[in-house]
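Why do we bother with a discrete structure alphabet at all? Because it lets us treat a fold like text: something you can write down, compare, and reason about line by line. To make this less abstract, here is a complete entry for DMT family transporter. Read it the way you would read a sentence in a foreign language you are learning: slowly, and without expecting to understand everything at once.
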Amino acid sequence: MNQHTPLTAHPQATRAWRQAIPLPLLEAALILTWSSGFVGARFSIDYAPALLVVFWRCVVVTLILLPFVAKSLRQTSLPVLLKNAGIGLLAMAGYLAGVIQGIALGVPAGLAALFADLLPMGMALLAALVLGQRLAWQVWAGLVIGLVGVVVVTHGALAWGNAPLWAYGLPLLGMLSLAVATLWQKQLSAEESLGLLPNLWLQCFVSSIAFAIVEGTQGSLAPIPSTGFALSVLWTVGLSTVGGYGLYWICLRRATATRVASVLYLSPPVTMVWAWAMFDEPLSWQMVCGMLVSGVGIWLVVRAEARQNPS
């Protein structure tokens, strides 16, 4: 008997409903919500320390989801919980702390975002070197072309800041942390994998502890009584965490890690559209061209993997 109790009375119907949604539609929603995280970080820095917002983002998600996942978590063995907690620490605390703390120490946001956008290449290299997976040359070509598109999009925002030299490694370590978590998640057996909501709850729970330790050494963890702070937390709770991370794990169950990561090559131009709509930042033909180049790279990856893994 499976050790996990489903969250609904009809788990087969829930899975069938998710499977009925076309994967490209889920990936489009993933790009939209994932890119909202960078916009949320940009919005929140005017009202509170970035890690304080991330801490409360995790706390709020933990409190909201607890009634829906408590029964399932109680019936899950400790080893399974510990494995998924480790994945959560790497995927959320490691990734967000690396990128956000790098920016806080003076790494320019554009450069930090570019390091984060190396996720598809980092994941492919780890899969090849550590797991011994062999990717078709078309997949490698698509990843490189997609990265070129990202560089074209972000070129105008790239600059070398005044941060300590070691701080530039933090966004890179954050990217590698998410890459390791993603590959680890894909290696879990069905018995070791939690449902979507218990998985998301556990990630936010362990990450809130990690952020409390980091931010607590620098100042108070008390929420700031302002509308801007509240909106920052709500934005990142709904769009970036439940939407972004939730859709990331859903897509990862439907497709390969390489495909899901490569789709995120489109997050930089979408982020800039967010910034144009919310902060009146300018758009340019360079961004459009970069988006098209990344689109070609993603198409190569998707087509190559479809040939390797015909459904």
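What the structure line is telling us, in plain words: Residues 22-308 form one domain. The chain is about 75% helix and 0% strand.
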